[in-house]
Each structure stands twice: as structure tokens, then as C-alpha cells.
């Protein structure tokens, strides 16, 4: 069996206890526990401009994975990461064409950085390698590698949604982007909807390629273990003591407009308005690490949430009770797992999400005998397989409020029955089955 070469823009720092928040890094880390792997991508660092920028590749090996990363210049970071990837592709793929901030020049930087990735990866490749490219930052990377003569099997997986072509074509270069995807032997997406949308796009543009569904998951065994073992951690004990037996609701999301956070805060506000019996009693912890903090929409969202949390706490709080505990820094994963475990309900209410791993993590972390209730948006990729959750439309604050009341007053039997329905899928579709199925498909493409 040859080596697996994984390429993604975001590469976790191999020795960092605080992994970056984000489904891609979390799932890949869980999936790459066996076999020999090279993981190539951006170091997370920016360096000043220089003529003919030719970054060094830094290499670090931890267990079976060799991490190889390059720095980007400020201009590359700006045009490739902030503007084209996160100011254009991200909103568009999350069905928010109105937030897209298109300028043609950014497309050139995006293409150039993809070509740079290809040039820097080329000398690291070995005969027998299979290459697996991840996410919207790197749509054209397969083509850039083919242009350099790479004949190895190359697969691509999109972690985020793919919208209907009628929306996608708001991007002036959408057809060019789809054409470059002919370079891939296997193309994977999260859901049936994404596959249908992408395949419609291929048909309309006349591209011979086919997207298939490879749903992503978590490592449920190790997450459940962390949730259980972390209960004795002093920080978890501190949280527990601070709750003093009060019902506890949790939300965990990157600070991103796709996550529906203002709508969620509004739902919680309506809940306190319409169900006054919970005032002074319930605690809602929202853990929302700042993400892409230099992109204007993300800065505006942060201000909006600061304001909403302040307003709700000011209106409903009391000298001995804070309705929302709102954090904008990450929490170590081991702690997070036990926080989920303590929570009577979790709010996972994205407006649109590729899969959403938090929903699966919350289910995995529960105590079987006394599980909490998952409140889940219809618009998470995870939704079709998790309909035993309390399903909500995140745009309807009253529906969120009703779901919160229902969750906190749900009879034990119903809570257990719902969790019993949710659990099997979280264990059936994992990070490992996702990677295994994709790699098998890529292996078959090689043989063919
Ligand atoms: P996305 O990939 O859009 O960020 P997902 O829900 O698929 O959304 O994945 C998010 C991942 O990041 C999850 O594994 C989650 O536990 C992790 N994460 C999110 N927020 C935090 C946080 N505050 N601290 C630590 N990890 C976080
Ligand atoms: C989502 C994307 C990933 C990205 C992550 C964190 O999960 O699908 O590609 O890595 O968000 O975002 P960031 O911009 O910090 O890498």
C-alpha cells in the first residue's frame, strides 16, 4: 500500500493541544491514524513580500504523519485565503451570494497560490502515492498538478455545501472552476443535495466528472471516552459547581455567519420572554472561537453577537444570574467533550452547513442512561440522518424557543428514545469509515 498524500489549506499544528476549531482538521486527524501519510498545506504564517517568493517547506513528523507546510506572503494570504476563498467561495457555497465580495483580481491570486502548492508539493511526491485534496481553497489544485505531469490518482473532497447551479453561476469563473475538476479521479461531497447540485453543474457546463457522496463523521469511541474521563478534570468540576444543578444548554461553533448565531441568540431571547419559568434557572454557554477575524463580514458578526449577548444579559440577567455565558476563545477538546456531557441540551442551528460535526460530538458525549437533547437545524448536512433530534428552522426564533422549552421539560423516556435513534449513525459513519471509503474509491480509480 502506497503513501497517502493529503493536501488542505489548514493543517493542524502537529503538537498543539488546542487543535484549530474546524471540521476538516478535526476529522482528518481522527482519520489518519494508520498507514504512512504526508499532510501538506499552509503553515498558518504570513511573511512579508519578496520578489519571486519561493517558500521553504517545513517538515515535522509525528507518529505516522509527516506534516509539510509553507508560509504565504501577506498578498497571497489576502487574495487567496481572505478574499477569494473566504470572501467569495465560502458565502456562495453557503447560499449567501449577497455576501460575496467579488473582484476579478483575486481569482488570479487564488490560481497562483494553487499553482504554488502544486510546485512545492511536486518534489515531495513518491511513486505509488495517492493524493487527496481537501476543500474549496484548492478546487484547481488537481489540474495544477496534472499540468506539472503528475499521473498519480488524485481525489478531491468538498467539506462545505455545493449550491444549485443557478446560484453558483453568480461566480463569474464558476464554469472555469468546474472544468478544472476533470483532473480528479474521485470527487466527494457530504450530502445527496450537494452531489445533485454539483453534477447538475457538470452537466450544464459540459464537464465529464461525477460527484459522489462520502459523509464525514467523528471518532465516536475516543470522543465518548474523553467525555467520560474528563468529568474528573478540575476545569470541568469548576463548570459543574458553577451550574449548581441548573439546567445547562451548550452551543459550540466557530464564529461564522453560516452557524446562525444571531438567530440562535434571538431564539434564546424569545425563550426567556415566552417561558419566564426558566428565568434565573437556566444557563446557556456559547463557545465561539473567533474565526477568519480579518474578513469584514466576520468582524461585523462579532460586533453583532457582542451586542446581542450584552442586551440579553442586561435585560434578563440578575445580580446572581447570567443568562448567556459567551466565550470567543477555543476550549481544549478534552474539556469540550465533558462540557457536552454535562449539557441537558445542545443548540446546533446553522443556516447552512456541510455536515456539522458538533451535532455528532454532542450525541457521542452523552451518558446513555441520561442523555441530553440535541436541537438541530434542518440545514445541517447531518440533518437527514439525525431526524430523531428536535429539528428546527433556525430562521424561526419561536421554533427555537419552543424546542428549548421542550428539551428542558422532556420526559426521561423520550430523551432516551431519541438518543437511541441518533446513536447508531454516529457510530456507523465515522471519520475512519469516511476516509476508508474515499481511499478505496481512489484506489479503484487507480486500478481502472
Ligand atoms: P466547521 O467545520 O464549519 O467549523 P463542524 O461542526 O463540522 O464545523 O466542525 C467544528 C469542529 O471544531 C468540531 O470538531 C468542534 O468540536 C471544533 N470546535 C468548534 N468550536 C470549538 C471551540 N470553541 N473549541 C474547540 N473546538 C471547537
Ligand atoms: C471549515 C472548512 C475548513 C476550514 C475550517 C476552519 O471546516 O471546511 O476548510 O479549515 O472551517 O476555518 P479556517 O479558515 O480557520 O481554516
Q: Could you give a quick summary of the protein structure above?
A:
With 448 residues, this protein is of the alpha/beta class.
Describe the overall structure.
By secondary structure, this protein is of the alpha/beta class. It has two domains: 4-213, Glycogen Phosphorylase B (Rossmann fold), CATH 3.40.50; 220-428, Glycogen Phosphorylase B (Rossmann fold). The protein has helices at 23-31, 74-93, 104-121, 141-147, 165-168, 174-180, 192-205, 220-229, 234-243, 261-274, 296-316, 333-342, 357-365, 397-408, 412-428, 431-447; strands spanning 4-10, 37-47, 58-62, 65-73, 130-134, 154-157, 186-189, 211-213, 248-252, 283-287, 324-327, 345-348, 373-377, 390-392. It has an eight-stranded mixed sheet, with helices on both faces. A six-stranded parallel sheet has the order 11-10-9-12-13-14, with helices on both faces. A hairpin with a 2-residue loop joins β3 and β4 (65-73). α10 (261-274) crosses α14 (397-408). The protein starts with a strand and ends with a helix. The mean pLDDT is 96. 6-O-phosphono-alpha-D-glucopyranose (G6P) is lined by residues 10, 20, 22-25, 135, 159-160, 291-292. This is Alpha,alpha-trehalose-phosphate synthase. One of its GO terms (molecular function) is alpha,alpha-trehalose-phosphate synthase (UDP-forming) activity. It comes from Acetobacter persici. InterPro entries: Glyco_trans_20.
